[in-house]
Amino acid sequence: MIIDVSNTAVEVGKNSARLGAALIRQAIAERGEAHIILATGASQFETLGALVKEPEISWSKVTAFHLDEYIHMPETHPASFRRYLKSRFVEKIKGLGAFVFIEGDAQDTRKEINRVSTLLSKRTIDVAFIGIGENGHLAFNDPPADFETTDPYLIVDLDEKCRLQQLNEGWFSNLAEVPTRAISMSVRQILKSKVIISTVPDARKADAVQGSVEGPVTNLCPGSILQTHPQTYLFLDLQSAAKLKGKGHR
Fold first, then answer.
1. Global confidence as pTM
2. Beta strand ranges found along the chain (DSSP E)
3. Which of 6, 23, 211, 236 could make an SS bond with 241 (beta carbons 3.0 to 4.6 A apart)?
4. For residue 250, what pLDDT band results from cuts at 50, 70 and 90?
5. Could you give the C-alpha distances from 21 to 26, 48, 122, 129, 245, in angstroms and in order?
6. Nearest Cα to 146, choosing from 135, 162, 133, 157?
7. Degrees (nearest 5) of the Cα angle 235, 184, 152?
């Protein structure tokens, strides 16, 4: 795991986007196409904002995959991750090859999971842009996360800490409104990505960052599984890195 610590969240976003853009260009140069995963949430604001401004990316040769979505969530809801990604990414660039969205409000959830799983299983992901939750979750894989399933997507239950994070970030007006289940990319599927870029700013993520970097690999802190991935880049600001004891982080 390579750790990059910047002074501010804006710098974190620019640095992570710069690396991601270089990897996307490299994949296109080598294979004529690139496949990426995009996360959502407040932690990804700066990264996506910088990524859409990166020059000389042939976006028509890029296919993006959706990381997670609430079950029964209509796209019109302010907390919809489809809405988030369309407004912060898809609508900011011209001629994107494709974006595979999870239709959280599909009538048949299992059928929708099969649809997106089939599409994803046919692709090798060049770059996964992800975050780490306050409870250490990857995507919506809350602790104790399933580290064993090889299914590309699965139905997960959201714990209270995860739901409180969504409330405190301003996506909902009260806890009762926050859904209790979601469709999430599995941990094993995320780990199949060639490169993982995890962008985790903010002091409220400091405990999760410490557990993910310096704690044991355990499904009680799902982010810790990133220690096992050969090419993970963790981008932090001073606040989220504050509890790290290890030296040598650049």
1. 0.93
2. 2-6, 34-38, 62-66, 68-70, 98-100, 127-130, 153-157, 181-185, 195-200, 232-237
3. 236
4. very low
5. 9, 11, 22, 11, 30
6. 157
7. 100
Instruction: Provide φ and ψ at 45, rounded to 5°.
Output: -55, -55
Nearest-10 Cα torsion for 88, 94, 100, 101: 30
Q: How far is it between the farthest Cα atoms of the chain?
A: 50
> Residues 6, 86, 163, 175: is their CA dihedral positive or negative?
positive
The DSSP element (H or E) to which 10 belongs, if any, is: helix 9-31
Three-point CA angle 46, 218, 225, nearest 5°: 45
Decide: 123 and 35 in contact? Cβ < 8 Å.
yes
Chain centroid to CA 25: how far? 20
- What's the whole-number mean pLDDT along residues 37-52? 93
Q: What is the pLDDT of residues 73-92, one digit of tens each?
A: 999 999 999 999 999 999 99
Ranking 27-36, 46-55, 105-114, 168-177 by mean pLDDT, the lowest is 168-177
Domains and CATH numbers, the chain: 2-237 (3.40.50.1360)
Looking at residue 248, its pLDDT comes to 42
Q: Which amino acid is at 217?
A: V
3-class SS of residue 136? coil
Answer for the pair 60, 96: CB distance below 8 angstroms, yes or no.
yes
Q: How many Å apart are CA 156 and CA 179, to the nearest integer? A: 11
Q: pLDDT tens digit string along 178-193?
A: 999 999 999 999 999 9
Structural contact between residues 202 and 235, judged by C-beta atoms closer than 8 angstroms: no
